[in-house]
């Protein structure tokens, strides 16, 4: 009788170990197949953008046309029209925060997506664009 009881204990331990192993493998495989979260850009107000600019925290990227830029732009901004951005990514620093703006916010959102999709991680889209900027009374230069 003793031998039979001892064999049952070994079998119980074996099944417990197998069950725990399968549970662990199942849990770990669920984690391994979960896709990583996609990097995203952050929408900010013109007031937040002004604070970042005043602190010297950002590279300012204007994605409008040359004509729009000539009519008035944020001081120290760099013009790369959104349609040229994919070909000119080497002109955008990867080691700084990037503030992106356009006329009203549509093209800058598209440009922000291009940057994120190309590995840039600290992207800030200025909602409302230069229209909102000037409405707030902030300076533009020609």
In words, what does this structure look like?
There is one protein chain. The model has no long low-confidence stretch (mean pLDDT 87). The protein has five helices and five strands. The protein starts with a helix and ends in a 7-residue tail after the last helix. The protein has two domains: 1-34; 42-135, Rhodanese-like domain (Oxidized Rhodanese, domain 1), CATH 3.40.250. It is of the alpha/beta class. The longest helix is centred in the first third of the chain and has 32 residues, at 2-33.
In terms of per-residue confidence, which ranges show pLDDT below 50 for 5 or more consecutive residues? none
Give the termini distance in whole angstroms. Answer: 98 Å
How many strand elements?
5
Query: What Rg, in angstroms, do the CA atoms define?
Result: 27 Å
Fold-level CATH name of the largest domain: Oxidized Rhodanese, domain 1
Helix content: 40-55%
EC number: 2.8.1.1
InterPro entries: GlpE_sulfurtransferase, Rhodanese-like_dom, Rhodanese-like_dom_sf
Protein name: Putative Thiosulfate sulfurtransferase
Organism: Candidatus Methanoperedens nitratireducens
